[in-house]
Amino acid sequence: MTPVPPWRHSFQTLGFAFVSIGAILSMIGFIGLNTPTNCPASGCAYNPLLGLAASSFPSGLTLIIAGIVVMWMVQIESRREDRGSA
């Protein structure tokens, strides 16, 4: 049994952190985008929190995709190393 290289666990942890933080941001953005607002007839006042919530949804999706790609690349490289050592 060969020892596991330390980079493998580091990048798997990084990918998992990206997915976790991205999921939280996506949930916050989804809730923020679906929050009903009651505006007067003259229009709504600018609310920076709604802008922040709306921008966190695509940011969260981007982090989820980046985390999946990082974990996928670690898996591919692990298989390549395992094949090369056998």
Q: What attributes does this structure have?
A:
77% helix, single chain, mainly alpha
Task: Describe the model.
This protein is 77% helix and 0% strand. By secondary structure, it is mainly α. Helix 1 (6-33) runs antiparallel to helix 2 (48-85). 10% of the residues are buried. The mean pLDDT is 85.
Topology:
Elements: H1 6-33, H2 48-85
Helix pairs in contact: 1-2
Low-confidence stretches: none
| Integer-rounded radius of gyration | 20 Å
Helix content: over 70%
The structure class reads mainly alpha
Distance between the termini: 11 Å
Residue share in β-strands: under 5%
By DSSP (H or I, 4+ residues per run), the number of helices equals 2
Shape: rod-shaped
**Based on DSSP secondary structure assignment, what is the total number of beta strands?**
0
Largest sheet: none
Summarize the structure.
The chain has 86 residues and is mainly α. The protein has helices at 6-33, 48-85.
